[in-house]
Q: What sequence folds into this?
DNA sequence: CATGGTGACGGCACCAAGTCACATCACCTA
DNA sequence: TAGGTGATGTGACTTGGTGCCGTCACCATG
């Protein structure tokens, strides 16, 4: 029999989400999170660099999915088509479990400025990954940066719609819809 | 003779900028900043809610300038024209002193992820203020949000150019140039 | 079977950010 | 001259976060 239960990381995430929802982010200490997961504070910080990150871990994976998606798009693809391909790859990686926890996650984040700050930063990181990947295709910086922003924006809006209980469409379908709507709105700015 | 020298806030900002530049953000304690300014840690936190904010304080003023600038634009103005008017108002409020400290400020921020996070958040707050002001003019949400993002982007890019020693143009001129370039690039995405 | 290495965890001490209650002193006004 | 006000100082406290060291299970190799 094992000395340690498996999935320590996942237990920490779930414990944190529970406690944050129950008593608020500020009123929850890292020690409480660790204890609920049957671990200690030290172990928590071995898995996550700081308290906030327990809700945002794994975004490097998302950045890579986006970058690879852009790189895999055909040479003939326009910048926005490449972004669409990247969103296809990213959204396809999401699971039903992630959809299930979505509303609680957004609620907790919405209730705390520190978490909003981290969320904003992570979103910017995703856009930066997209822009960098587009740049490697030869897309001019300004164009790449704008197309990347539309992609990040489409992802956020699609996520909001996807996690709604009444939603029937797939995450990928929603992201494509949102990107198309953003493209139309952007062109109409001129 | 006074017990306290005046301009405590300003002294704290200058002390912080100096120390961050000298020995790095992480290696500088709030107590050090306060002592260099002839004050104590408690007083520092009476002026700034946290250590990072000493470099970003005063951005609420910027948000208000943008919002008021949008509101003051003529009814006939397009969303981007309203954004341009807001940028005029904001950029006109900057002083030669702010330009002088710009490079050091950006260098310090570039050297620390925590500060980059706060900078990203503040930038998003500016865009949100713009978008909200546009919404009050009846601009649709999507359009307002995109136009606001172009505005925030133009501001950042113009600031980078403005603080360069070789720069001859005014901040306002640079912001208008950048906004125009972004508009062109956005329309070309279609 | 024995030995030693590795990896995940606990325990503990420590530093610095941030909070709070209370004291102090200059300045202003009656 | 007395009292009020506001900015500051003092010191104790909580908590996020780091670092060092010990412990135990597992695994490989002889």
A:
């Amino acid at each position: 029999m094992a000395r340690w239960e498996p999935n320590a990381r996942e237990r920490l995430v779930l414990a944190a989400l529970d406690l944050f929802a129950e008593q608020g982010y500020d009123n929850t200490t890292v020690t409480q999170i660790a204890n609920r997961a049957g671990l200690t504070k030290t172990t928590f910080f071995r898995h996550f660099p700081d308290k906030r990150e327990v809700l945002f871990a794994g975004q490097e994976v998302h950045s890579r999915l986006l970058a690879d998606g852009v790189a895999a798009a055909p040479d003939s693809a326009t910048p926005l088509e490449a972004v669409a391909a990247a969103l296809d790859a990213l959204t396809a990686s999401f699971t039903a479990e992630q959809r299930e926890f979505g509303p609680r996650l957004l609620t907790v984040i919405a209730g705390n400025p520190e978490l909003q700050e981290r969320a904003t930063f992570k979103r910017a990181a995703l856009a930066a990954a997209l822009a960098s990947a587009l740049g490697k295709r030869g897309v001019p910086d300004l164009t790449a940066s704008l197309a990347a922003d539309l992609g990040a924006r489409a992802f956020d809006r699609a996520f909001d719609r996807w996690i709604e209980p009444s939603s029937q469409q797939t995450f990928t379908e929603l992201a494509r819809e949102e990107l198309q709507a953003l493209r139309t709105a952007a062109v109409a700015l001129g």
